[in-house]
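A protein record in our archive is deliberately plain, so that people and models can read it alike. The record that follows is passed on verbatim for readers who wish to inspect the format.
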Amino acid sequence: MPVQPLDLSRLKVFPLAERTSLTRADDILIDPDVPPKPCSERNAALVAECAAKIRAARDRGASVMLIYGAHLLRNGTAGILERMMANGWLTHLATNGAGTIHDWEYAWFGASTESVEMGVAGGCFGTWHETATNIHLAIMAGALDGLGYGRGLGRLILEDGVTLPSAEELVRLIIAEPTHPLTAARADLLQAMRTQNWPAGRVNISHRWKHASILAQAYRHGVAVTVHPGIGYDIIANHPVFNGGAIGRAAEWDFKLFGGSVDGLDGGVVLSVGSAIMGPQVFEKSISCVNNLRRQSGREVVKGHTIYVVDLQDGGGWDWTAGEPPKTHAAYYLRFCKSYSRMGGAMHYAQCDNAAFTHNLYHALAGRG
């Protein structure tokens, strides 16, 4: 075959200290107690309705799921979401790979975000040693304890590191239990320890800005947190440590955990905030799996849930509460609206800044609206 795959083991990577970071945790974090930016009259009404739905959902023990894109974190809402988790108003958080990269970089480095255009031209976009190394370390160490991507990384940040078994212990377990469910995870970690010179025992990684991490706060409060990445989507692929098998395994476990929360969604609430692709795509597959299993056991499909979609794009001039537009209407091609409108329950769309919506929602829930 004339085309040969890249040898990523030959990539030259650089320390984060050499990168020009465009955002800093200390600059972006929003104080939850300050007055939020005002919303339009329509969005303010949606916020008030959403708060009431969340309270009712929690009273009946139903799931309240927040599916968010990386910009919600980058817009400084970590402290707001921590308050919402602490009060029990959120039961599940889900994000994409980019959400975890900024999350870890803010927590460890206090800064994140780079110029894609400048980095790609110089061959250094995303080739940051610490980011890829520590996210892979969290995923691989977490797998040995049955943790997926979200909880594994949240634990590493909150606990300032991980503890690795010795290479000898991993070899012994692989030989002794070749068909064990964790054999592949053990082999992935063993390979990484040898190629990346990771030491056995405690690996200390101090996260001075862990208060800027949504994942760490979710892990601290025992709130389910899942990550739904794509292989090759994220800069953690730009490093010799890149292991699609380890990422895929962690994402598989997180997809199953996501489904567990969808199964508790009767009368619950879904917030899809700034996730135009991952959110609707993952949700539609998950709810189909849940309904499949429910029907097999004689249960009714998920019902009575309410979905609030928040994005900056125009809603296409369509009233989504009236159903799906025809294919001849431009709004039909707004995936983040169309997919959720097909998921049962009621779907509402708010064209709104994601941080403003979230901040106003917190104040409404806290009785400050």
